[in-house]
Specification:
Elements: H1 2-15, H2 20-34, E1 40-44, H3 49-55, H4 64-78, H5 90-95, H6 103-112, E2 120-123, H7 136-141, E3 145-146, H8 148-151, H9 154-161, H10 180-188, H11 207-210, H12 228-250, E4 253-256, H13 268-279, E5 284-285, H14 290-299, H15 309-323, H16 325-335, E6 350-351, E7 361-362, E8 368-370, E9 374-375, H17 378-409, H18 411-426
Parallel strand pairs: 1-2, 1-4, 2-3, 4-5, 6-9
Antiparallel strand pairs: 7-8
Helix pairs in contact: 2-12, 3-4, 12-13, 14-15
Pathway: Glycan metabolism
Protein name: O-fucosyltransferase family protein
GO molecular function, one term: glycosyltransferase activity
Length: about 425
């Protein structure tokens, strides 16, 4: 059985690969982030319309976005996806940890953790429901907030998409104005006198209100079917998510705005956290408890930008615990029932015979959550030993090359090197 599980792990984390063009561009984006000379953090907001509608988080938004979330929630109820009511208390859902953390809250958490304002934050995710308006507070706190459009040119992104057939232009046209005769005819058919004044003319719909994926809500109560342009944009978002996935896995730190959405399928943040845990278990991956975070923000809701010192210490303590073994165990309890991809421990890990086995940690149902790693196969341990020996041989060869180079350079090289050392000792500030 263990061999079948190892096969699942190799398929999930090794065999399944992105296209070579996606991997190449993703590595280039990582190199451009590294070229800034400082670590960078990847942040995925998790603000997706379907997720917000599923958990009833409409009241956290304003204006048209609340209507769009409620419309999608009504669709899910008719389709049998949701068995709950249409109108729910979004603030109660937020206190229960069922709603994503807003970008402003994430910025305050990172600032409480001591991240400077010059920290490079990569914004992952092909779409953020609510638009750029929600990111304004985060950009005000961290000016180096970048995304794929900041790291790639339009040519690089279009080359990744490939050639596409042109779509017909969707040009907005105003309705035809009524003629004077048509207006008089409607007035004559209005009924017997005395009659009330005619209603005021309909409000004109301007082009900037019609443009965008939400433009239909200004004209009708029913969402139209996706247009060819919308379907093409959905296909493009899969490519952007693939690029963001590569960068999030390679980031120095990762902060999820929302994971474990309860849908039964691993979400973007969950997959990234599982991949980072599989490749580098010691990587800095935050696993915040949204219920605890909501309670902390309720304490300082009226003074979020100037919190008390005790509040900052509480945030640091919670987020540091999420990085430790306690956070791993909690993540296992939430993610393991859905898919091992979000938490591939202990299924996709093993220990060598020379290491001391960790203590097993079991859940309430008796299932092992942490520390039940099997011993690695003999071929894996032997391959690792061979790799260590090869490294020792290469290092010894490098030392021999240095000695040979010094012998070829003769005594002049040794004299110059000695004078440089003497010069450094002469100007040693510790003397």
């Amino acid at each position: 059985m263990s061999e079948f599980q190892r096969l699942r792990c190799r398929v999930a984390f090794h065999a399944l690969q992105f296209r070579s063009e996606i991997q190449t561009l993703g590595r280039q984006m990582v190199e451009r982030l590294r070229a800034w000379g400082q670590p960078f953090l990847s942040y995925h907001p998790g603000l997706v319309r379907d997720t917000l509608a599923y958990h009833g988080c409409a009241e956290l938004f304003q204006d048209v976005h609340t209507e769009l979330i409620q419309y999608r929630r009504a669709q899910m109820i008719r389709q049998g996806i949701i068995s709950d009511e249409l109108n729910v208390d979004s603030h109660l859902q937020r206190e229960n940890g069922s709603c994503p953390l807003m970008p402003e809250e994430v910025g305050l958490l990172l600032r409480a953790m001591g991240y400077p304002s010059k920290t490079i934050i990569y914004l992952a995710g092909s779409q953020t429901f609510g638009g750029q308006r929600l990111l304004i507070p985060l950009r005000a706190m961290f000016a180096n907030l970048v995304d794929r459009t900041s790291l790639c040119s339009k040519t690089e992104l279009s080359d990744l998409v490939g050639p596409e057939t042109p779509l017909p232009s969707d040009i907005f046209q105003l309705p035809r104005p009524k003629s004077e005769s048509e207006i008089k005819e409607e007035w004559s058919r209005a009924g017997p006198r005395p009659r009330p004044l005619p209603p005021p003319p309909e409000r004109r719909i301007y082009p900037h209100e019609k443009e965008g994926w939400y433009g239909w809500i200004t004209e009708t109560d029913k969402e139209p079917n996706p247009s060819p342009r919308d379907l093409r944009m959905q296909a493009h978002r899969l490519l952007w998510d693939a690029l963001d996935y590569i960068i999030s896995v390679e980031a120095d730190a990762f902060f999820p705005g929302f994971n474990n959405d309860g849908s039964g399928w691993p979400d973007f943040s969950g997959l990234v956290m599982g991949q980072r845990l599989y490749e580098r278990a010691s990587s800095r991956t935050y696993r915040p408890d949204r219920k605890t975070i909501a309670a902390l923000f309720d304490i300082t809701r009226g003074n979020m930008y100037h919190p008390k010192h005790d509040w900052t210490l509480s945030v640091k303590e919670h987020l540091n615990k999420s990085l430790s073994e306690e956070g791993l165990i909690r993540q296992s309890l939430l993610s393991k029932p859905n898919s091992f991809l979000s938490h591939p421990l202990p299924e996709c890990s093993c220990t060598i015979s020379s290491l001391k086995l960790t203590k097993q940690t079991e859940g309430k149902d008796g299932r092992v959550l942490y520390g039940d790693e099997h011993e690695c196969p003999i071929w894996m341990q032997s391959a690792e030993a061979v790799g260590v020996r090869n490294d020792d041989v290469e290092s010894a060869e490098d030392d021999n090359d240095v000695v040979e180079q010094q012998e070829r350079n003769g005594p002049d090289f040794t004299t110059s090197l000695t004078s440089m050392i003497d010069h450094d000792e002469e100007w040693d500030p510790n003397d």
